[in-house]
Amino acid sequence: MGCAGSKENEAAKQIRKPKPWNHSEPITRDQLVRMRDEFWDTAPHYGGRKEIWDALRAAAESDISLAQAIVDSAGVIVQAPDLTVCYDERGAKYELPKYVLSEPTNLIRES
């Protein structure tokens, strides 16, 4: 029995952006950036490995094809295709809020 998963299994976990979502109240891009920074600053304190958090942040801030390569090379096990739930090889769970992965549909566009 080899470690490599079947091609079908890999295809099932192709990552994608979260479905469109609404924040509880309309927010500006600045507020969204602040929320994201706060999440990434505090997330490693809740467990898991810093290098996995770093890889997840890089993936969240990249386009999908690059994000796929980042999580694959970091050995991240993607549970939810939108990256909201992932694990590392040791079984530590990493939960990402949608706001670090995509913008809400009610983002206030500043002119």
Helix content: 40-55%
What's the arrangement of strands in the largest beta sheet? 2-3-4
CATH first level: which class?
Answer: Mainly Alpha
CATH topological fold name: Bacteriocin As-48, Chain A
CATH architecture identity: Up-down Bundle
The averaged pLDDT comes out at 88
Spatial shape: globular
SS summary, helix count: 5
Main sheet specs: 3 strands, antiparallel
Can you give me a brief rundown of this structure?
The protein is an alpha+beta fold and 111 residues long.
Structure description:
This protein is an alpha+beta fold and 111 residues long. It has a single domain (27-108), classed as Bacteriocin As-48, Chain A (Up-down Bundle). 41% of the residues lie in helices and 11% in strands. It has five helices and five strands. It has helices at 7-12, 29-42, 50-60, 64-74, 98-101; strands spanning 27-28, 77-78, 85-87, 93-95, 107-108. It has a three-stranded antiparallel β-sheet with strand order 2-3-4, with no helix packed on it. Strand 2 (77-78) and strand 3 form a beta hairpin. Helix 3 (50-60) packs antiparallel against helix 4 (64-74). The longest helix is centred in the N-terminal third of the chain and has 14 residues, at 29-42. The protein is globular. The relative contact order is 0.23. Residues 1-12 have low confidence and may be disordered.
